Amino acid sequence: MATQAPTGIERELEQHRSALTGYCYRMLGSGFEAEDAVQETMVRAWRNADRLQQRAALKSWLYKIAQNVCFDMLQGAQRRAQPMDLEQASTADRTLDAGLPESAWVHPIEDARVIPSGGDPAEVAAAKETIRLAFIAALQHLPPKQRSVLILREVLHWRASEVAELLDTTVASVNSALQRARATLDKAGADVSGPSTVDDAEHKDLLAKYVDAFERYDVSALVELLHEDATQSMPPFQLWLQGRDEIIKWFLGTGIGCKGSRLIPLELNGRPAYAQYRPDGPDAHKPWGLCVMEIEDGKITALQSFIYPDWFASFGLPSRFENGEPVYAES
pTM here? Predict the structure, then answer.
């Protein structure tokens, strides 16, 4: 039986929580599962902290535990995806499908949970690129070991020797796994590219304009903000749209229930985002979905909505609005 953990170990463990959450999120494709994995990692580490011979080795030891937890969670799990990975684009007049279970989809995550505050601006920008939904979905094409190698080598910039020690293998094996991972992503046509920099000021400005236009349901103004080839997806539904014209048709057709919504700006997956509350009777609004934007050259290129109202509490959001005021669920 493990003895009591060394004094102060809890504080040292917590210093690694954000980075570990980022690693687990990239491995698992779900913010909820990532937090469960990190919590299990922390519990195992605390229970066995007396076995750690050198405190300087704490980081690699934690990643070893986290990796094993993720590998266990991925056993038998299906690949998480985005709607565009599963079928061709549809048209705005198509009836909504029955939807797929939550486990079928890549989930969003708050920037604050995986990107340490106050970091070097260049490192923060790079970290935001590697939590993009498209990048997370691309990683899901890889077997767990290759996924871990790619994340550790190309995202976290570990040396091949460090990864080899973590995986109990050789440097040659690590390099081979990395080459296979790259080849798999290339063959799958996985979208792992993106802007090399994140212009936060531009993103915030465009998000503010979108929120204003959407709450007024000014379709003409919305058109001006969308790229001609913009896409819109809405898990749990498999249906997705491509092209500004189809998206606008959706807003004026099946999506007309969004008129009168209230939006709360957020930062998810390194991108501007918002929580949407739909009208629910006089002077009331209820949770509807979380939307992540992709922006390029001053235009919105993707709207990735997640229609899961029950997620709102987990993101610290109001349970509804009454008479214009946010109402939070009692804990």
Answer: 0.92
* Unique residue bearing structure tokens 């539904």: 237
Which among 226, 139, 227 is positioned nearest to 190, based on CA atoms? 139
How far is the C-alpha of 305 from the C-alpha of 149, rounded, in Å? 30
Residue identified by tokens 């260049």 is 122
Give the tens place of pLDDT for each residue, 205-259: 999 999 999 999 999 999 999 999 999 999 999 999 999 999 999 999 999 999 9
Domains and CATH numbers, the chain: 200-327 (3.10.450.50)
Cβ count within 10 A of residue 166: 18
Q: What is the pLDDT of residues 33-64, one digit of tens each?
A: 999 999 999 999 888 877 765 555 788 999 99
| Residue 200 neighbours by CB under 8 Å, 6+ apart | none
- CB burial of residue 175 (10 Å; 0-12, 13-18, 19+): middle
Q: How far from 211 is each of 248, 261, 290, 315, CA to CA, in Å?
A: 15, 10, 13, 19
